[in-house]
Amino acid sequence: MPRPRLRPAVVVSNLLAWSVAAVWLLPFIGLFMTSTRPFEEVVIRGWWSPWGNYTIRNYIEVLANPQYDLAGGFRNSLIVAIPSTLAPLLVAAMAAYAFARFSFVMRNLLFVLILVVMAIPQQTMVIPLFFLLKDLGLLDKLLGVILIHSSWGIAWIAFFMRNYFTMLPSEVEEAARVDGASYPTIFLRIVLPMSIPALAAAAAIQFTWVWADFFFALIFLYSPENMVITQKVVAIKGQYQIDWGLLSAGSILAMIPPILLYAALQKYYLRGMVGWATGKG
To answer: Which residue range forms the structural domain that includes residue 133?
Structure first.
């Protein structure tokens, strides 16, 4: 049986894809090499030298030293990121279903307002949000940051899910209504199970954004016991000297939860993104 011939276009596209992936991986490789080498070697030989004494001492030090308190940062980030993902996902999914399936007064205007909210830069809202949280007694509280991330996530998730819901076949829902199913039953037992790929994609993106946030955390959280992981990693650098090995080790540890979440939801994430773009869930 003759071997299939490789088309030049396929070869070029694959080489291009691998080249882009290699370029994206270069900073991470340098970061990882630095995290596994002593401070003296990093200073003398630089980040990219392949020779040296590789060790996990930096990881042990950054986790065990109470001065850095990465465990507290992980805990606070999880406390913020999990509800800031689940709450807007649920609220936005219900709103998106209403926009996709129901006709009501000013529906289009409300949807345009959602798009406007998506376009507002976060930096322009910091001052009013600061005084709002202060008046509510939520400044320097994890709940305040959760509410901010949740409100910001509702807008883009509603836009994302509304487009996905419009691509789902409505015949299944109509058949359920003929059988006497209510709208909440249809939404919970039919629409949501059919939308798992899109929900997983939205959850992965929202969780990653909240977990990696440094701007809101820097403005609204200032007590050491309330700081999230991004603030704890920055604090590793020290005042007079930067131990690049410790800082790199802390940065890599901070990457682990979003990477694990993406790995767990990868097949759903890809199906959700492709389905949203092509109309196939």
So the answer is: 65-278
